[in-house]
Amino acid sequence: MERPKSWMTSGAFARLCGTTKETLRHYKDTGLLPPAHQGENGYFYYDLEQFYDFLAIVIFRQTGTPLEEIRRCMENQTPQGTLALLREQRRRLEEERQRLEQMEFVLSRTIDDLELGTAPDLTPQRAWFPAEQLLAIPAGELEGLISPGAGEDEMLITVLERCQRLCREYGLQPDHRLGAIHSPGNGAITHLYTRVREGKDCPYCREKPAGEYLYLCCRGRWDISAGYGALARYIREEGTETAGDLYAWDLAGFILSGTEKNAASMLAVRLVGEF
User: Fold this and answer.
1) Which residue, 47, 100, 122, 195, has fewest beta-carbon neighbours within 10 Å?
2) Strand ranges of the sheet holding 8-9, from the earlier edge strand across to the other edge
3) Which CATH architecture group holds 112-271?
4) For position 3, what pLDDT does the model report?
């Protein structure tokens, strides 16, 4: 037994769906959602059941499904076909979610770094730094990949390529900013790193611990040796106790690093007992 039909005008149906008559007209003209009935007066009418057809179209459209693909699905609705299409849309949504989360991660880290970069030049300060996940490549491993006599650009390309290769291999999402880890003993560089959104089961991943850090900003210069000197002098003169490695990383990155006057780097070391 069929349900008695309750015809709705285009305007009433548009209000129910939260859309416009123009959208319904477009869906009618493309064959996506034809009206259920045309009266003797020539007006088109919709059936209440088509409300759920409209919702299905909205879901498919929001996930980027082409109109022609939606139309074929609506014309030949089967549980199996609809399920397959919905699963495909869920897969696309997951990919988009991961893409947006990666964008948010990169933008947030960039904003944080640029805000830190406003600190007075070569002036040690204290701040709480949250934990960060790093893809850290041993310096010795990178030395084996760099040809003797390589210039600075060639070395940078080698490091970036190695980082990108490892990120693809282990499914990591980097912020593409480079940093260096220095030994607390002799100050030698032990690792070069890039930050990643999540540390996964990767032998190159390690955590930069959360805690109170002594940090210093170097601005307007490529050579940051003066920053190392200023930080070491402050630690020595103030009798400051530090724990673990010293971290150095680029603050300006791909946005501002085209000229030396915009260069900005950060040096930071965790304080003893401040975690």
Assistant:
1) 100
2) 8-9, 44-46, 37-38
3) Alpha-Beta Barrel (3.20)
4) 46
